[in-house]
Amino acid sequence: MHAAGSVRVWLGGTCTRFTAALGLDQETYGRSDGPATVAYSVLADGVSVYESGTVDRDTATKRIDVDVTGARRLELVVSDAGDGNALDHADWADAKLSCGGGA
C-alpha cells in the first residue's frame, strides 16, 4: 500500500483477531530519493486499536496481534509519517483475520 492510503474490511461482528507483519517494502532499500517512512494504524469501528509509530527502513518487522472482537468494520491505514510520501511503500504481510465459523 502506498501512503497515504487505507483499506476497509467489513467484519460484521464475527471476527476476534487481526494479525499481520508490518514493514516497508524491500524495493525501497538502497534508494536515496526519499525518506521512506510510514505509520500504520488499525481502527475497529473507527476506534484506534493499534498505532505503530514511525516505521523506516531500519525498523524491524512489527508483528501485530490485535483484538477486534465484535467490531463490524476494520480499517487499515498507512500515513506518510509527516515527511511526504516518496518511497512510502508499506506492506501488511501475512495479514489474517480470525473469524467465527458458520454454516
UniProtKB/TrEMBL annotation:
Domain Glycosyl hydrolase family 98 putative carbohydrate-binding module, chain residue ranges per copy: 1-99
One matching Pfam family: NPCBM
The name this protein goes by in its record: Glycosyl hydrolase family 98 putative carbohydrate-binding module domain-containing protein
Source organism: Streptomyces longisporus
